[in-house]
């Protein structure tokens, strides 16, 4: 409810400020249509911007400090014996009061001080919220008035607005970069803590994955990465053997051979497959594909487990086919028609034109699509959980069960786990390894794209 009120307030301020700015600009121009540096719409956008920014700043400050202020007020409503007593008891008391104030039920009888504190807390939250909303509205209207007074024929509203948009774009780019840096820093810091328990050589070159769980926080069991790494590579390779030929050939057919009617039907159907959740593919592999492969293997004398690396790889490949097909099709259709006409004009057949002209010209984009597919295969979890058998054992047979890095991350972080123990910290080491693998793939793809783009542009 609070979020809806804030959204309505900001939209109302934005709409009001824009209309005031446009009206003010037209009034300044007058019936004689005096020459204005910027169009009225830019003046309206500038007034809206200077109305919105102060209001948003007030609401952000309220969101950032309201929690600490509310906690301080709530502590002042509790008896001194509870505030100065056991921290665990204080935490439980605060949680119970929060639940009572929010309208949720609690176990046991509600004490008098809990009822009084919850009522005071509800009133305090209502008062602070409406105070923040009122202050945001006042500050926003003040900004509206000040900016509206600046409207004049010589005001470079367009330049100022475009500069503000440029700053906004820079901030958004900085947020994306800092998010990536934060992810890497958090993974690296926790992985370094893990390596204080387990030697890096034992982790990166170990051949046995058998982490033990202990309450003492010590490193028990074995943390060899190679079984998980090999399972990830093997299942991803099987997926690519399915996804790349099927996806690329279907893209070539739709881009070069299919009639407009067939393309208009087939392309949306293939893209619908990309919207199916991965858990559905996992259930399909567990219930249908795995038993089918096991039966077919029995006919030819091969023991294929229903839950195996082959089952998970084929299911994952089917899931990735739409990504490869759709991206490759879009890239192939962007190849200039003049290249095809020139090849056909010198006597090449259609298939020769595709092999020697179209595909080389589209190679950078196709490689990018392949790398995206490989990265998706490396990060897939649900299909492997359901269809691979979750057996972190180093073996080359794709017909046996296997496990991957992502599945082990889920296993290590699931349940009642002490996050300061190596049993949980190993998940960050696994995540950092997966991040580095994906980064290497992206660097390789970037190298290939740059190399062949220089050749064909």
Q: How is this fold's topology laid out?
A:
Elements: H1 2-29, H2 40-76, H3 80-83, H4 87-102, H5 112-150, H6 157-194, H7 200-204, E1 209-211, E2 221-223, H8 226-257, H9 260-273, H10 278-299, H11 309-333, H12 337-345, H13 350-379, H14 382-387, H15 405-413, H16 422-456
Antiparallel strand pairs: 1-2
Low-confidence runs of at least 5 consecutive residues: none
The first-to-last residue Cα distance is: 54 Å
Q: What's the number of extended β-strand segments?
A: 2
| Total of helices | 16
- Structural category: mainly alpha
Question: N-to-C SSE series?
Answer: HHHHHHHEEHHHHHHHHH
Q: Your description of this structure?
A:
The chain has 457 residues and is an all-alpha fold. The chain has helices spanning 2-29, 40-76, 80-83, 87-102, 112-150, 157-194, 200-204, 226-257, 260-273, 278-299, 309-333, 337-345, 350-379, 382-387, 405-413, 422-456, and strands at residues 209-211, 221-223. Strands 1-2 form a two-stranded antiparallel ribbon. Helix 8 packs antiparallel against helix 13 (350-379) and helix 9 packs across helix 11. The chain starts with a helix and ends with a helix. The relative contact order is 0.09. The mean pLDDT is 83.
Briefly summarize what is shown.
The protein has 457 residues and is an all-alpha fold. The protein is built from 16 helices and 2 strands.
Notable traits:
single chain; mainly alpha; two-stranded antiparallel sheet; flat
């Amino acid at each position: 409810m609070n979020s809806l009120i804030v959204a309505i307030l900001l939209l109302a301020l934005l709409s009001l400020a824009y209309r005031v700015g446009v009206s003010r600009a037209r009034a300044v121009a007058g019936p004689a249509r005096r020459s204005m540096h910027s169009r009225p719409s830019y003046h309206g956008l500038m007034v809206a911007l200077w109305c919105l920014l102060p209001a948003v700043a007030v609401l952000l400050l309220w969101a950032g400090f309201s929690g600490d202020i509310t906690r301080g007020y709530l502590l002042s409503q509790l008896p001194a014996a509870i505030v100065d007593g056991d921290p665990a008891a204080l935490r439980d008391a605060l949680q119970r009061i929060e639940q009572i104030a929010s309208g949720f039920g609690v176990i046991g009888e509600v004490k008098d001080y809990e009822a009084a504190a919850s009522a005071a807390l509800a009133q305090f939250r209502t008062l602070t919220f409406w105070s923040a909303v009122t202050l945001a509205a006042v500050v926003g209207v003040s900004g509206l008035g000040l900016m509206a007074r600046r409207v004049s024929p010589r005001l470079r509203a367009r330049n100022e607005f475009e500069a503000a948009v440029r700053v906004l774009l820079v901030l958004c780019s900085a947020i994306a970069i800092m998010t990536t840096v934060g992810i890497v820093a958090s993974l690296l810091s926790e992985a370094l803590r893990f390596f204080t328990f387990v030697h890096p050589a034992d982790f990166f070159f170990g051949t046995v994955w058998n982490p033990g769980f202990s309450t003492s926080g010590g490193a028990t069991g074995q943390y060899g990465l190679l079984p998980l790494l090999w399972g990830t590579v093997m299942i991803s390779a099987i997926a690519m053997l399915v996804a790349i030929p099927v996806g690329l050939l279907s893209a070539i057919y739709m881009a070069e051979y299919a009639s407009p009617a067939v393309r208009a039907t087939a392309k949306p159907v293939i893209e619908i497959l990309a919207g199916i959740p991965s858990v559905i593919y996992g259930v399909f592999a567990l219930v249908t594909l795995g038993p089918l492969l096991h039966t077919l293997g029995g006919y030819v004398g091969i023991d294929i487990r229903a839950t195996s690396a082959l089952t998970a790889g084929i299911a994952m490949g089917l899931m990735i086919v739409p990504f490869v097909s759709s991206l490759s099709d879009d890239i192939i259709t962007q190849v200039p028609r003049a290249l095809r006409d020139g090849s056909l004009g010198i006597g090449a057949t259609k298939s020769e034109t595709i092999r020697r002209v179209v595909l080389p010209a589209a190679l950078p984009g196709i490689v990018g699509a392949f790398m995206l597919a490989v990265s998706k295969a490396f990060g897939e979890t649900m299909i492997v959980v359901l269809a691979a058998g979750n057996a972190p054992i180093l073996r080359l047979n794709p017909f046996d069960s296997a496990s991957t890095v992502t599945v082990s991350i889920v296993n290590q972080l699931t349940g009642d786990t002490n996050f300061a123990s190596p049993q949980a910290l190993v998940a960050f080491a696994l995540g950092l390894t997966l991040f580095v693998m994906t980064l290497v793939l992206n660097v390789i793809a970037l190298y290939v794209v740059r190399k062949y783009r220089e050749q064909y542009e």
